[in-house]
Amino acid sequence: MNRRERKDLKVLALFTAVYCRAHHDQPGLPLDLEGAGLPDLGLGRSRLCPECREFLIYAMTRRIKCPLEPKPTCKHCQVHCYRPGHREKVRKIMRFSGKHLIRRGRLDLLWHYFF
Fold this sequence. Notes:
single chain
């Protein structure tokens, strides 16, 4: 996995964690990616509710298994590999979390938000 792919996965995990904290009152469980067969990205402190954890593992697995080379960003991809409901959920999470983080000074994420 190259540097860009690792960064995309970290941004996906960060955005999902922000969304989960804002929308779910359940106490979060530690994010155990290695237990799910995914590479360790240094996200051990992240805590997600079971629903968001399951979604993140699904989304990361789909991203890693993307057959296209070089891997495009999902919103610019011609082949949509998410199940029907998951594609809308990714959009919802990205839209909410991007705006949330930008309002709180994370201007470095502007590039990822618009492209």
